[in-house]
What does this fold into?
Amino acid sequence: MNRSKTMNSIVRVGLVQSACSSSREHNILQAVAGIAEAASGGAQVVCLQELFAGEYPCQSEDHGKFAEAETLPGPLTDLLGEAARRHGVVLIGSVFERRTPGLFHNTAVVFEADGSMLATYRKMHIPDDPHYYEKFYFAPGDTGFMGVPTSRLTVGPLVCWDQWYPEAARLTALAGAQAIFYPTAIGWLDGEESLRRQQYEAWDTMLRSHAIANGVFVVAVNRTGREGPLAFWGGSVVYAPSGELMAKASHDAAETLVVECDLARIEWSRTRWPFFRDRRVESYAGLLNRWGP
It folds into this structure.
């Protein structure tokens, strides 16, 4: 493919894939170390995994877990902002937000390279499945879908379960996002070994399809390691707007990736596959219905 390539169009994206322990201090320190490692590898934008500060809290309905939440801004976002400033990177972090007593969100926070907090995105789609009891903990987001302009690129923050919804990816792209970032915690449940390949390939296919359908980069940063009966499958990944696989992490080890993304590929892909040109926006009112015409 012949594409023009200038230094201004190149953005290096870092993905920090980790295994979490019961020690909050350890988890936070390894995330900060991952940010530093990505930055030392040339990353200008860094994304952490979903709820990186602790073990995934939603495997049971436990009122005690609400003690892990904190307000925004708060000590954790202060720490993330300082890490962004120290390393000069745009940063996407994921936090268990205490909005007010009794109201909590699963929230992605975008920081500028000077450490300032630019935007918060509250996870819109909240799952409720065995060992993913998020509806017990989190209210659905009310921030809407967004593109967040930064000094490096326009960030489209979404979170985990949002990955399965083409509407979320499309509206984020329509908001101007050049790359959609999905902090993620998804894995295999014990007893479902026969479904593992099918489940993983479905997830991976959805991510690739969002890149192609919207002509954007897609970045998903997943956990790895075992937490109770969940084995998080890692596989953090970057897809180009054409659907080309640019990088993929291992399934079973902590890993930091740095991937060079040429933003000129967005227009290249959209002019070859002009899906936005050919959308029939006047005919999509049915998408506002839960079901049926």
